[in-house]
Structures are given as C-alpha cells and as structure tokens.
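PT: before anyone asks, these are the final sequences, not the draft ones from last week. 408 residues across everything. Please model them as a single complex and drop the result in this thread when it's through.
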Amino acid sequence: MSTNRNLTRTYGHVEPEQRHALLGQRGAVVWLTGLSGSGKSTIAYALERALVSDRHIAYVLDGDNVRHGLNADLGFSPEDRDENIRRVGEAAALFAKAGVIAIASFISPYRAARDRARACVGADRFIEVFLDVSVDVCERRDPKGLYAKARAGEIKQFTGVSAPYERPDAAQVTLDTDKLDVDACVAAIVAYLNDQGSLQGPKA
Amino acid sequence: MSTNRNLTRTYGHVEPEQRHALLGQRGAVVWLTGLSGSGKSTIAYALERALVSDRHIAYVLDGDNVRHGLNADLGFSPEDRDENIRRVGEAAALFAKAGVIAIASFISPYRAARDRARACVGADRFIEVFLDVSVDVCERRDPKGLYAKARAGEIKQFTGVSAPYERPDAAQVTLDTDKLDVDACVAAIVAYLNDQGSLQGPKA
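LR: through. Structure below.
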C-alpha cells in the first residue's frame, strides 16, 4: 500500500561521454613499469603533481598505498605478486571509469600481467610507460639499497638480478631516465595524454 | 657518470589540502547499507547522477562492478563476503584520498565490517547512510525476486530472512525509503555532504 513505487524506477548510470564532458577529462591509466630504481615513484608523483596542479584529477597507486591497504592480505609469493598486480589493474580500471587518471607505479616485470591490466582497463585508455634503463644504472642509483641486498643474497627473486624483467613489446611511451630528467619525462607523458584527448572535454 | 641525479630528488605527494583546493571538493565515502530491496542501487545511481551533473566527481562501487572485477576471485562463503566488504572499504578509501566521492552500495549487514570500512576511510570522511525499511516492505517490493527464492529455500543465508542484519547504531544519515522518494533521499545525502564541506573548496 505505502510501497514507494518511485524507488523501483530505474535510474540510468552516468554515461562515459557525459562524465567526460562534465569533468573535462577522460579517465585513463598510466602504467609505469621498469626496474627498481628506474624512477617510477619519482615520475609517478611528479606526474600526479603536474596534473592536479592543472586541476585534473589524478592519483598514484603504488606499493605504499596498496600493499598496506587493499592488498594487505598478500605476501610475496609468485601467486601473491600476481594477485597484487591483478587487483591493481582492476582498481585502476575503476578509477578510469570514474574519470580519474590513475597512475600505477609497479615494477610489474611480467608482460602477461601488464597485458591483463591493459585488457581490464581497455586498450584505448591504458598507457604503458616503460622506464627503459639498464640494470647497471639502476644498481648504481640503488636508492633503497635493495640491489646491494639482492647481490648479498638477502633478497631472493629480485627483478634484474635473480628474477627476469620482460621488456614491453610496444609501450605507448618509452623513457630513458638515464638521459631525460624528471620534468622531461612528465612532459612526455602529459603530451601523450593530451594527444589522445584524456585532458580535454570531448570534441564538439 | 651519466647518472641522472634529478631522478632521485624527492617529489612530494600532493597534500590533501592542495587537492581539496584545486578540485573544489573533498573526497568522501557515502556508504549505503540496508536490506536487499531497500533502495541502495537506485539511490546510489541517482546520487551519482546528481553529483556528476553538478560537475563533482563521484563513482558508485557496487556488486555489479566489483564482483566481476576486483573481487572476481571471491565467492559467497562468510570469509569471502567479509573479504569482499574489506576490499570495497579499501578501494573506497583510495577513491576518497584521490578526491572522489565514492558511493558504496552493499547490504553490508555486519556492524563490524562497516566499522572497519569507516576506520580505513577515516571517520570524518565516512558517511554511513542507513536505508531503514522493514523486511516486510522490502519483501513486498522484491525487485529481483530474491525474497521469494529465499523463502523457498533456494537461497541460503539471505539477509533479513535467514541471516541477520545488524542495524547501524549511529548512521550519519537514516532514510525511510518507504516514506521518502528517491529525490528526497538524494537531497538529504547531498545536504549532508554540503554541510560537512565535501562539495566546496576549503574555507579561506
């Protein structure tokens, strides 16, 4: 009798095009991949700062905020590392659907795992950014002292030392961080986002 | 020699206050809880539409987009249901940190699970919205025919029929969806978000 019929009325979801037009940006995932020490975190946070300063909505997903929260139940076995990257891909896909530029910063050494993230986000919104720099250079930087520990056998299965890194076949952006400074790397990624229309409203 | 020192320079994260000022909104989580048929999905999508139409960035997390992606590995055992809600709370917290109004729409019948989500998001950004309507009313609506199946024993552990629903002690917003129409429910939530300053830039 008092049943509120209005409540069963179907309210449509916000269409991606409407979201794009209203926010003036299109959700995307910038997926930074590369060895430890290749510059992922530095570039991720510099890119976030550049985008947010320009009133875009962008957010870094990295080990710091994911491993302590969403993926706090996971360890470092091969299965758990795989699940870690799977969930990051799914979370990044949700961010992109919401209209956010998600910036994922993970070594993500396996091509299959990166390709799964791409498939889950949608290839047109997934920008794989390969920080292409040699193990030698990363090891010389060794900002966290991890290469030293890996060489001493204190860390097992360390990418580039005792575990493989599978180079991307066809990254959208490849950056040699031994030659380019941070601002140049950020500028290259922003240029890509601009070219593909992620930072503007839809064309009239 | 050619090591790029700039790359090890520390780039600070975007501070929450900067993000708030630049986006003109403050991230928050609207957590809709209530029985099946209480109106969660309808209100969630109507709220999302209202916020996005007003150029706010908001996004619904619900069974539809989470169970098929981020939580696709989970089933319906008590442990998996618990993990489902845990991950949603963590994902919603990431959205809120990014500056988004995340709208979580889950029965979430257990107080402890909702409280854990609140703790993970931060109490000042977590708005628990209780759709307070009786099992009788929900069962009369039964938009998906689930109560009929539960009564017939085809669905086990159905909240409100054969499994408990723990009412919130102190929800931020309580709505009787048998008396209020959808627009009134959305208006009440928007008013709450406005009052707590989530929809404006920071005060000067």
